[in-house]
Amino acid sequence: MGHPMLNAGAMYCIHIRIVPAYARLDNDRISATVTRYLIQEPRMNHVGTEAMPRPAPSPSHATHMTVASDGSIVVPPEVARRFGLVPGAAARIDIAPDGNTLSLRRPISSLAQVYVELTNGCNIDCRTCMRNVWSLQTGFMDDETFERLRVQIAEMPVTPTVFFGGFGEPMHHPKTTEYIRAMREIGAEVDLITNGTLLSEQRVDELIDAGLRRIWVSLDGARPESYSDVRLGASLPLVLRNLERLRHRKRLLSRTKPELGVAFVAMDRNIGDLPEVVRIGLDLGAEHFSVSNVLPHNQELNGQTLYDNEMARWNPRRADIDLARIDLNDPRVAEAIRGVLSAGSRTRGSVDLGFSPAGNRCPFVDKGSVSVRWDGSVSACLALLHTHTYYVGEHARTSHEHSFGSVTDQTLTEIWNSPEYVDFRRRLEEFSFSPCTTCRSCERIEENRDDCTNSGHPACGGCLWAQGFIRCP
Ligand SMILES: C[S@@+](CC[C@H](N)C(=O)[O-])C[C@H]1O[C@@H](n2cnc3c(N)ncnc32)[C@H](O)[C@@H]1O
Ligand code: SF4
Ligand code: SF4
Ligand code: SF4
User: ∠ CA(219), CA(127), CA(173), 5° rounding?
Assistant: First the structure.
């Protein structure tokens, strides 16, 4: 008997990755659902119809390393290049909790992605946005800074992906498409995240024509009123019309790019909309979804978080449903996730229910990324681009910005290879910071200036990104 959530004859293919045990799924309904997938469904890890056979693994997944006679491991050259496994590089090995899987992290010397904040300004005013809690001037990257950055990227031995994002609206910058085109000319893949309000027909055509690889659109609600309740000043019907136009123009021009991704920031007020957001996204052709918790910048948002019980765990071996860490035993969340699985079953894509070790991993270091602010200042992550405040439990914490230099007077490669930055990435990889997020027992939780192991600024032990609560595409 098939799973009740799977429609007979529908086009689906659900991939469930289970690494440790699913015992951590302590919600009855969730664990029952996962258990049914695993036990009742004979094809177990992968459920598909005859008409939609399991796709062959892509070469990048099927590739093998070999062990040479001297015991060294030989990696295929293309993989070595892609992951920065050059002679002398040190790549950390993790052993999965199942004891059977070794994974190799990207060496911290490998620069794979450059986040570029074209502006910190925006045309709307989301309830969630960090821009509400700062008093910074609005700035736009100028041509000179952009050109320096572009040349610096062009000179790198392996061209990193460029991601136009940060804390502002990239489409609010007058030269976004020109800049995408310029990055494409040097061979960089370019992704972008947008609120989707400024995607006029002309700009959609420009984005397609410029060769954008992926466009992430933030959809924080599935109904006009719940969407506008978060995204103040924006209208869901308008954004959906824009996305429909994108889909239509791609079809008309026989183009597959840009792929669509949907980003959702989960809170008490909108978690119920998540399944419908996934359905809407799938109808619009979305191939990627990213679900984050809200980084609570004020008391009101702090009352809206959905990870409080997870935060209280000291050694969480948690279920990572490819969503951010979230309270799985909260019936509202459980219901939403069931809906997401059900929506996912309509596609050829996959919904991963991965279980991975808990936080204390900097996602920006894992990606081999660096972040460049609109004025050229270089930080290790988006969070350190601007000073801002957020809550860790009941404590307001000010995260002071931190920069390793500026592309206006050094190259990105010089900054990336500077001893201070290399050392910081090494500490992030080891995550040798005090566990402030869970401890919260002294006043050092209130700032990222230092911790009780004398980490100095920035002390990352109170970072909600590293704990897996906050995500970004
Ligand atoms: C800051 S925005 C910049 C890009 C663009 N303006 C947008 O809204 O998509 C990048 C992502 O951060 C999300 N975001 C905004 N405020 C957040 C918060 N307090 N916590 C977590 N994510 C947040 C947005 O929803 C968006 O998906
Ligand atoms: S659209 Fe993006 S940058 Fe603008 S206010 Fe919303 S989250 Fe902030
Ligand atoms: S741990 Fe957090 S604050 Fe530190 S570099 Fe990573 S994302 Fe930034
Ligand atoms: S600095 Fe140390 S004692 Fe203070 S909150 Fe962080 S981990 Fe706890």
Answer: 70
